[in-house]
Design the sequence.
C-alpha cells in the first residue's frame, strides 16, 4: 500500500509518501506506542545502523499511530530517560490509521500496532513480512539478513535455504539444478546407512552379475512401471527380462529362493 502521511524527519515535522522510495528497497516497521519500553530499543537499534542498510540500497522507516508532535517530543527526550534522541530515519505518524489498517498490523484488543516489519522491493511489492507480538523486540541482524536474501533471489534467480547467510550456498529452483545443493549438503551424512541413497539402478547384465557375486548382501527389487512402453518400443516381453534375472541370481547365489508374488 502506498500512503502519504505526516512524519518526523531530521527533527522536523514533514510528510512521507511511500511512493517516494520507488526504485529502492525499503523496510517499514511498525511499533505499538511512543514512550513505552521495547519500542525505543528497536527504533534506536535500526536508526543507529541506518548506514548499513543504505549501503544495501535500502531505506528504513518506523511507524506508529501516535501524532507527529508526540514523535517529536519523544525524539527530543534523552535516551537515558527513555527517549529516542537523534534519529537517522523517518518516523511516520499514521493518526488516521489508514496505512496501519492496510498493512494488517492492528492488535484489536489494544487498538495499536503489532510489531510488523515489511521488506518492500524497488517495484513496491512486499517481499517479506515479520510480525511480532507487543512484548517481543525484533533483531536488526535478522532483518538485514532477510533483506540480503530477498536481494540475492531478485538478482540471481536462485533461492536461499534455511539459515542462509550472504556468501552461503543457494539452490537452483529446479528438480535437476537443486541436486547440486543437496548432494553437497548431504556429504556430512554420507556415513549414515540410508536405504534410499543406497539404491543402485542396474543398467546391464554384467553390472548385475558383479553385484550379486560381491561380498555384500543384495536385495533385488524388480518393478517395471515402464513395461508397456518398453514392450511397445522393443518388442521384448518384460517377463523374459525378469526370467533372465532370476536365472543369473540362482546361478550366482546357490541356495537362493525366488518367490512369486501375484497381485490382483
Sequence:
Amino acid at each position: 500500500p502506498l500512503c502519504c502521511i505526516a512524519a518526523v524527519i531530521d527533527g522536523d515535522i514533514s510528510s512521507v509518501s511511500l511512493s517516494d522510495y520507488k526504485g529502492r528497497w525499503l523496510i517499514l516497521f511498525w511499533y505499538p506506542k511512543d514512550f513505552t519500553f521495547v519500542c525505543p530499543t528497536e527504533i534506536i537499534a535500526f536508526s543507529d545502523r541506518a548506514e548499513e542498510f543504505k549501503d544495501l540500497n535500502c531505506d528504513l522507516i518506523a511507524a506508529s499511530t501516535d501524532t507527529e508532535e508526540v514523535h517529536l517530543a519523544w525524539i527530543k527526550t534523552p535516551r537515558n530517560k527513555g527517549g529516542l534522541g537523534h534519529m537517522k530515519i523517518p518516523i511516520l505518524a499514521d493518526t488516521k490509521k489508514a496505512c496501519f489498517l492496510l498493512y494488517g498490523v492492528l492488535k484489536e484488543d489494544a487498538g495499536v500496532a503489532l510489531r510488523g516489519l515489511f521488506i518492500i522491493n524497488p517495484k513496491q511489492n512486499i517481499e517479506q513480512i515479520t510480525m511480532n507480538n507487543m512484548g517481543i523486540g525484533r533483531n536488526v541482524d535478522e532483518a538485514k539478513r532477510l533483506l540480503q536474501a530477498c536481494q540475492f533471489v531478485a538478482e540471481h534467480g536462485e533461492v536461499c535455504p534455511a539459515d542462509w547467510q550472504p556468501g552461503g550456498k543457494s539452490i537452483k529452483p529446479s528438480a535437476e539444478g537443486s541436486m547440486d545443493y543437496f548432494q553437497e549438503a548431504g556429504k556430512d551424512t554420507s556415513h549414515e546407512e540410508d536405504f534410499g541413497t543406497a539404491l543402485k539402478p542396474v543398467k546391464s547384465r554384467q553390472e548385475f552379475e558383479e553385484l550379486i557375486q560381491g561380498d555384500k548382501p543384495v536385495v533385488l527389487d524388480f518393478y517395471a512401471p515402464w513395461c508397456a512402453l518398453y514392450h511397445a518400443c522393443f518388442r521384448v516381453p518384460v517377463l523374459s527380462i525378469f526370467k533372465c534375472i532370476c536365472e543369473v541370481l540362482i546361478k550366482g547365489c546357490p541356495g537362493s529362493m525366488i518367490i512369486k508374488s501375484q497381485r490382483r
